[in-house]
Write a structure and sequence with these properties.
The chain is mainly alpha-helical and about 140 residues long. The chain has helices at about 5-80, 100-105, 120-140. Helix 2 packs across helix 3.
Length: about 140
Amino acid sequence: MPASIPKSSAVRQAPQRSDENLVLTAIAAFLVAALVLGTVTYRYFKHSQQQQEQTRSERQAYKRYHDYLDSTEQAAAKPAASQSVPATASSPAPAAPPSMAEKLLSHPAVTPGPGFSAPGVQQTGVAIIDAIDHAQATARQ
């Protein structure tokens, strides 16, 4: 009978080891799942913050652009109002040269886009048109 005692103790140790392995596996799986969930949550919030910052930046740019347009329109309205003084019949007013915007818009190769009123765009456009007209005039001769 002494031989039967080691067999029963070996049988009892196997379930204990299996239970320990199961607990360790469950703890490891929980830690891995918590790590994955934490990483996903962190990245989601980081992405949300970046998206909010980009939206805020776009709103600020949009506001600056519209403030610029409003100030440009107000500045253009003031000189036009002061020039509305009627000319006398004895001295006809000399024809003013067309503004840069008028010159650009009257040219067939120009299509104004969203940046048409941006600083320097009209000056550059007039320079390009003058260069094109000069090159075409030179080519005709």
